[in-house]
Each structure stands twice: as C-alpha cells, then as structure tokens.
Amino acid sequence: MASLLSPLLVLASFAPNIIHAFHIGSLSGEESVGAHILATRDIPAPWQFAACYVDGAHGRVFSTQLPDNPGLTIESCIASCSSQGFTLAGAEFGVQCFCGNTLINGATVGQPADCNMNCGGNPTETCGGPNRLSVYTSTGNVVALPVPTPQNTSLPNGWAYQGCLQDVGTRVFPHQLNWVDNTTVVDCINQCQAFGYPAVGLEFGNQCFCGDVSDSQNNSPGLAPESDCSFPCSGDPTHLCGGANRLSYYSFNGNLDVWHTPANTGGYQFLIGGLVVPLVATVGINGKVNFLEKLGTGFPNSTGAYELDLSLVNDFEHAWRELHVHSDVFCSASLILPDKGARQLNVGGWSLDSTFGVRLYTPDGTAGVNGTNDWEENFNELHLQQGRWYPSSLVMPNGSVLVVGGEAGSNGAPVPTLEILPTPAGGPTFLFMDWLQRTDPNNLYPFLHVLPSGNIFVGYYNEARILNPITFDTITVLPNMPGSVTTFTAGRTYPMEGTAVLLPQHAPYTDPIEILICGGSDLNFQALDNCVTIAPESPNPTWTLERMPSKRVMPCMAALPDGTFLIVNGAQQGVAGFGLADFPNLQALLYDPSQPVHQRISVLGTTIVARLYHSEATLLPDGRVLISGSDPQTNNPDGTPKFPEEFRVEVYVPPYLSDGRTQPSFTITDTDWTYGSTHTIIVTLHQGDTSTMRVSLVAATSSTHGNVMGGRTIFPEFNCAGNTCTIVAPPNANISPPGWHQLFILDGPTPSHSTFVRIGGDPGRLGEWPPFPDFTRPGS
Ligand SMILES: *[C@@H]1O[C@H](CO)[C@@H](O)[C@H](O)[C@H]1NC(C)=O
Ligand SMILES: *[C@@H]1O[C@H](CO)[C@@H](O)[C@H](O)[C@H]1NC(C)=O
Ligand SMILES: *[C@@H]1O[C@H](CO)[C@@H](O)[C@H](O)[C@H]1NC(C)=O
Ligand SMILES: *[C@@H]1O[C@H](CO)[C@@H](O)[C@H](O)[C@H]1NC(C)=O
Ligand SMILES: *[C@@H]1O[C@H](CO)[C@@H](O)[C@H](O)[C@H]1NC(C)=O
Predict the structure, then answer these.
(1) Which DSSP state fits 437?
(2) Ligand 5 atom, smallest distance to 399 CA
(3) Which InterPro entries match (predicted)?
(4) 59-88 average pLDDT score
(5) Would you say residue 523 has pLDDT above 90?
(6) Chain centroid, CA 482 distance in Å
(7) Whose CA is nearest to atom 4 of ligand 5?
(8) Most exposed of 91, 256, 285, 347 (fewest Cβ within 10 Å)?
(9) Site residues for ligand 4, CB cut-off 6 Å
(10) Average pLDDT score over residue span 250-258
(11) How far apart are CA 147 and CA 144, in angstroms?
(12) How far lies 715's CA from each of 147, 337, 399, in Å?
C-alpha cells in the first residue's frame, strides 16, 4: 500500500508544525500515512492529512461541529469547513464533521490505527473512529491548545477568580452580553468594569454576565466543583468560561463606585395637595411656583395653569391661584427670560396651532397676595415658524432665544430644525439640522447648554455636538455617550429620557466646564443605572461613566445652592410617555461634583409616592426642593392605572437643612448686575465666619421632562470685611448667559434663602418684545 504514495512525499508536504503546550505527539510518518492513504489521494490542495487525534479526553477538541452526515466523505467535510473559512477539518465516527482553526481542550495525537472507521459516504476513505478524529489542515500546521484552566493571571487590576458558581433558576447576574465567538475573560471583565459592575460571570463558553457581588450571594446556591466549569472561552480556548448552568466567577477586590450612606439624609415631606399634575414647573421671581398642566389629564374644571403661593401651603383654599392658557401646552418648552420682569416663556405644544404656541407670563403678586397677571398668547400675532412638540429652548449669550427640534405631533414627522426668537426679519429663518433628522424620534427635548467659548452644546439620543452660535454649523462632534453595559445605543433624551445639568463653575472660571447626564433607558425599556460626564471643550473630550446605585429613566435633577445636585423621581423600567413605566425609583440621591469621580453619590431618603412621567424637581428659594407629578402609568389587568395621577406635592429637605443648624441670611440692594461689576451684601452667619462662607448663583430655570432649561450654577468671587462682603459678578455672557439667578450664601454647609438677581441685562431686548398691545412688555 505504501507504494501507492511515497511516505516521503507526504511528510515533505506536511510540515509537522504541531504545537502542543503539554504534549508533542510523535508523528510516525509511516503509520500515519499508511492508515489514511486512501483518504489522501483526492484531497483538494492545499488541504492535507495531519494525524489521527484523540477527541473528548478533556472535552471536544474542535469548537464547531456540523450536523451528522450519513453520506460524509473527507472531501465533503473539508469543503464544508473550507467554505466557512476554517483551516482545520476533522472527521469522526464515520459520519461526524468538525471544523476549527485550532484544536482545543488538550488534543493529543493518537494511534494511527485507531482512526479505523470508513466514511459514511465513501467506504474507501477513513473518517476517524470512536473518539478519534482524522484531522486535515489547509495550512500545513495544527495548533493544539492545552487543556483550558480558569484564568487567574493577567486579569485587569484588582480582579480575582472566585470559583465555579452555580447559576440555576434565577439568573445570578442581571446583565448578559450576547457575544458569540469572541468571549474572553478579560474582555468580559473590562466591559463590566467600564459600566461599574464589580462581579462578572462567564457561562457556556460564550456568555458574559455583569452584576454585583451581592448578586452572587443572593441568587446562587454557591460554588460548584471546579470540574463543572469546563467550557473553553469562545475567544480564548486556553481558559475556561463556565459550563452548563455554571459561571466562572470573578470579582473586583473593593468598590468600583462608592455610594455614601450619610447618617443625615434629610428627607421627603408632604407639602400640599395639588390641583394639577404639572408638566412644567417654574419658580418665579415672585417666589411662587407656576405649574402648567397637560390638557385633559387633571380635573375637568382645570384651567391647565396654576400658581402656588408657598407661604400659604397650610391653607389649600388660598394657596392656588388659577391661571389660564389659551392653547395646549403638552409638550412645550419653557424658560425664564432675562427681561426686567423675568417673564416665563413657553413655546410649542400639542396639535395644530398649539404646536406653534408662544406664551408669556409675567410673575407678580407677593407672598400671601395674589398677583393679577395671566398667561398671554395670541397665535395671530406671535407664533413659532414651525410647529414643535417636545422642543428645547435656551437663552443664548447674545440674549436671543434658541428653540431646537421637536416633532409635528405625537409620533408625527420630525421637525429637524432650529429657530430664533424673537423671529428674525425676512423669510423663513429656521435652519435644517441633519443630526436631528437622523436621530428622530429619540432626540426630543435635547439638552442645550452655552459653553464658556460661547458655543452651544447639544446632547440628544446618545450623541452630542458643539454648535457655532451664529451659523449653527457643527464645530465638534463629540464621542457618543456610553449607554448600558449591554446596549451602547441606549439613549438619554425623550423618550429614553434622562436628565442633564452643567456642573458648577467657580471663579476664576478657568476649569473646563463639565456636563453631567444621569439615567435614560435602552430600547428594551431597561432604565440606565449610570451618569456620564464630559468636558466638551477640553482637548480630547471623552465621557466618564459613574454607576448609580439603582436604575432610573425619567429622573429629575435639581441644582442645590451648595453645588450638589439632588436626583429624584423616575422609574427603573420603561420609557417616557405611553404609560410604559414601571418599578418606580423612590430613592433620592445626591451628586456632589466636589468629590472624586466614582465617589460622588450619596444615598438619601425614600418617598412613598411614585413619580414617573411628568414629574419635576425644582429648587425653592428656601433651599428645599419641590417634588411634583406624575401622570398615570401602567395599567392593571382591570384597566385601572397601577400608578394613578399624582396630585400630591412634596418637598425634599436636603441634609443641609436637617442638621439642626440655622440658615444664614443677607441683605442686598442692587439686584441688576452687569458683567464683572461688584455688589455689596451684609451677611448674618450663625456657625462659621466669612472664611468658611460660600456664595452661589443658581440660574432661574423652568423644568419639564427632567430637562432643566437654563440651568447653571456659579460660585463667584467675593471678599469680605467684617460682615460686609463684595461679590464680583461673572465676567461675560459666555460664562453666564444673560438671566435671572437665585443668589445664596452658605454658612459652612447651610444655605440662606435666596434673592433673585439679574446678570447681564437683556441684550436681546426681549423686554420690549413682542410689539403688540395685548402683551405685557416689562422692559429690558
Ligand atoms: C491558577 O490556576 C492554575 C491552573 O488552574 C492553578 O494551577 C493555580 O494554582 C492557580 N493559582 C492561583 C493563585 O489560584
Ligand atoms: C465580539 O463580537 C461582537 C460582534 O459579534 C462585537 O460587537 C463585540 O464588540 C466583540 N467583543 C469584543 C470584546 O471585541
Ligand atoms: C375641581 O374639581 C375637583 C373635584 O371636583 C375639586 O377637588 C377641585 O378643587 C376643583 N378645582 C377647582 C380649581 O375648582
Ligand atoms: C388667589 O386666587 C384664587 C383664585 O384663582 C383664590 O382661590 C385664592 O383664594 C386667592 N388667594 C389669595 C391669597 O387671595
Ligand atoms: C443672536 O444670534 C442669532 C443667530 O445668529 C441671531 O439670529 C440673533 O439676531 C442674534 N440676536 C441679537 C440680539 O443679536
């Protein structure tokens, strides 16, 4: 038989470059070729026979098995593997065909004579034997990898292998990544760590799970014998990635994110029952809170707009003043204008003319005394150029108002444009934005902020960019925001609604400004459990991700006078609108940007009130935060809402007001500041002195859907002599766009009540707009 094909020829063409980490099989050319001579004859080049390998000693030695084929031949097996791009083919038991690029699980070369079964489709060929593989190669090489072991070296810093963990019944870890053929221990750990998960499990060779160490304690009966974790990793067959219902379990030694649990958390308090579920909540310079309601969701007798007098919260009959809107404000954008009257502007809305709505309210009245002004609107005189449902708005450094995006109505056509108010003269002046068109319908209520360069940041869906404030051309496309550990495309704006703020700016305003965005959800309605920050104008901006202790879609974030942010409201599952939210998040958090990254969140108090879609959180002049909303969500089987219309209004009393200290106070006479000017206050402190005093300016905002329009916190320079202090106003309109602010002083941790001051005047002369007698024009 040997004479039919020279053994020398075969050996020459088959360079026995067989790499065995544990065992170099000795190839006896004579025997090897002798057993397979019939098979070798018709093999298509460059394929050639390698050896008869032992299968199954430590698991299958090939990673891919094709369906059994009673008509199997060596040629058909090679053709199948070759067509899928594999470089090795193996035939076993006459009818089985396997493919791979390496042999795994410690394959060793067996006796040539053990490959003794005829191929099902050609009795003159040999197709392995029982647990024996006739292995063919297209490269001349066979790399045989060692028996895989748990990876316990070359792990990312701080990570260690913990054992083979049972995963039966409830999944031990909540987040599963669906990688197929590239799963490795290190990649899985890196991905989980990037999203703040300190526990990792790998299962079935290719599944990567992320979670917490507590999950391994709560959801698993415990460790299993090491031998139960026997599946090589699909992307690294020298290491083990669990088994059937078994996780190769790794954990981080320590915390990736530290969530503080202070003894003094402050807490929720009931404030007053409500008349409306506010869609928009705005604290006016009259110290009263203006609520706008989604038409038709409240009492049938509702006018859709009410003002709450905070001095009368114990007197329900007198606390609420009825206001009137002429069109449907669902879902509009709001701002406080920099005019003398601090008018509240509301634009857009629901359906037909209402989507073009431009509404103005001049707050008046004093504590305990009703004002007489009402919302003013006249479609024929004043309206947007394009109808907008879910737009955003911003006062630009030049004092005009920018209105961005929206749709023509619910699930309507996108309105992928922006426009300026007051409407510039001439023909249509709205501008088309391709990025709004492309990301509809996931970009509604985009996040808008003025940057210290004067350029405009816009965050929408999972994208962000910087716009020129004159041409609105894109100056910089920022990296996409990371989403959830499983879905990079999770979103941050309506309907996958998160919430965004500018982090505080401190004199001399040289640090790069940062934007913080918390929560959101993915397309599977899973809320996000992280916040991301970026310094958009730093040299190579990237997003930093910090994990929150719980998931949150539709969160609200209120700027507090001490530079921290209160995070409240929202759901752990769902998206905004459509009644889809479930599992309310009742836990308040505090985000403190003065702490190191990953150590900024404290866990505060919990509420009993579910606040989902159309809930808000608004800083009050006394340092508390007003908590309002929400609209009905999620139907019970009998059709009643699981989370009904919520009229009750709460406040959150932050820790700085619940530690028994007295609030400081100050007096000021000039409340209309130009840039860089100085202003005197007389302070009364109770615990510290002016060396531990701080001064803050919290911009007056209007908030809807977690989008706090106009939000900004500034810690200006100040100097004191005795109890007389001089505050230096921020230097320019890019650092501090024209507008009203609540001025606070802080005695150590404790804030005063605020006084409203205006900074930067009214360069856009909004106070003289619109030029119609049926509108109040408070002057510039
Ligand atoms: C690491 O794994 C190898 C292979 O399983 C094992 O022999 C060794 O003892 C392990 N080392 C540690 C520190 O666990
Ligand atoms: C694994 O492959 C998938 C595509 O199948 C890819 O999305 C993923 O990023 C890869 N994972 C790693 C860690 O490279
Ligand atoms: C509207 O009607 C409800 C229920 O009848 C009542 O509780 C509420 O006070 C009324 N609101 C006003 C503003 O009259
Ligand atoms: C304010 O006006 C409302 C009617 O809109 C009235 O119910 C309320 O009693 C008034 N409050 C005071 C303090 O006069
Ligand atoms: C502000 O800039 C916009 C965009 O260039 C422009 O339309 C508007 O007229 C400017 N406003 C003022 C007051 O100059």
Answers:
(1) H
(2) 13
(3) Gal_Oxase/kelch_b-propeller, Gal_Oxidase_central_sf, Glyoxal_oxidase_N, GO-like_E_set, Ig-like_fold, Ig_E-set, WSC_carb-bd
(4) 96
(5) no
(6) 6
(7) 470
(8) 256
(9) 312, 317-318, 321-322, 368, 370
(10) 97
(11) 9
(12) 62, 21, 22
Interatomic CA distance for residues 314 and 556, integer angstroms = 26
Query: What are the DSSP E strand ranges found in 120-215?
Result: 122-126, 132-137, 141-144, 159-166, 175-177, 199-203, 207-211
Terminal Cα distance for the chain, rounded: 106
| Span 475-482, average pLDDT | 98
Instruction: Tell me the average pLDDT across 211-217.
Output: 97
Q: Are strands 259-260 and 601-606 parallel, antiparallel or unpaired?
A: parallel
Closest-approaching ligand to the CA atom of 288: 4
Check residue 747 and give its pLDDT: 98
User: Is residue 486 within 8 Å of 177, Cβ to Cβ?
Assistant: yes
> What are 433's two structure tokens?
């934005």
Output DSSP code: residue 114: G
Cα dihedral 111, 116, 119, 124 sign: positive
Q: Which residues sit opposite 465 in a β-bridge? A: 458, 477
Question: Which of 276, 277, 299 gets mutated to test ligand 3 (max ligand atoms within 8 A of its CB)?
Answer: 299
Rounded distance, CA 466 to CA 100, Å?
Answer: 48
Of 253, 298, 306, the closest CA to residue 281 belongs to 306
pLDDT band at 40 (very low <50, low <70, confident <90, very high): low
Residue 78 CA to residue 59 CA, distance in Å, equals: 22
In the reported structure, the alpha carbon of residue 190 is separated from the centroid of ligand 2 by a whole-number distance in angstroms of: 12
pLDDT over 90 (residue 657): yes
* C-alpha 424 – ligand 2 centre gap (Å): 49
Nearest Cα to Cα of residue 307 among 393, 374, 404, 237: 374
Angle at 689 between CA 687 and CA 691, to 5 degrees: 135
Please, what is the average pLDDT of the chain? 93
Closest CA to 626 of 707, 568, 552, 697: 568
Long-range contacts of range 766-772, CB-CB < 8 Å, 24 or more positions apart?
A: 766/337, 766/338, 766/339, 766/343, 766/399, 766/400, 766/401, 766/422, 767/337, 767/339, 767/340, 767/341, 767/343, 769/422, 770/358, 770/381, 770/382, 770/422, 772/378, 772/381, 772/382
Between 567 and 44, where is the model more confident? Answer: 567
Residue 690 has pLDDT above 90, yes or no: yes
Tell me the DSSP string of 663-708: PPEEEES--EE-TT-EEEEEEE-SSS-TTSEEEEEEE--EEETTEE
Q: Model-level pTM?
A: 0.91
Q: What is the mean pLDDT of residues 652-659?
A: 98
553 in the Ramachandran plot: left (φ > 0), alpha (ψ -120 to 50) or beta? beta
Residues 6+ positions from 425 with CB-CB distance below 8 Å: none
Residues whose CB falls within 8 Å of the CB of residue 369, separated by 6 or more in sequence, listed in order = none
List the beta bridge partners of residue 670: none
* Measured CA angle at 576 (ends 572, 579), to 5 deg: 90
Cα 388 from Cα 544, distance rounded (Å)? 33
Q: Are 715 and 735 in contact (CB under 8 A)?
A: no
Q: DSSP letter string over 445-511? A: S-EEEE-TTS-EEEEETTEEEEE-TTT--EEEEEPPPP--SS-TT-BSSBTS--EEEEPPEETT--S
Tokens at 13, concatenated: 């063409």
* One-letter identity of residue 348: G
Among protein residues, the one whose CA lies closest to atom 1 of ligand 1:
152
Specify the amino acid at residue 688: G
Distance from Cα 422 to the centre of ligand 5, integer Å: 9
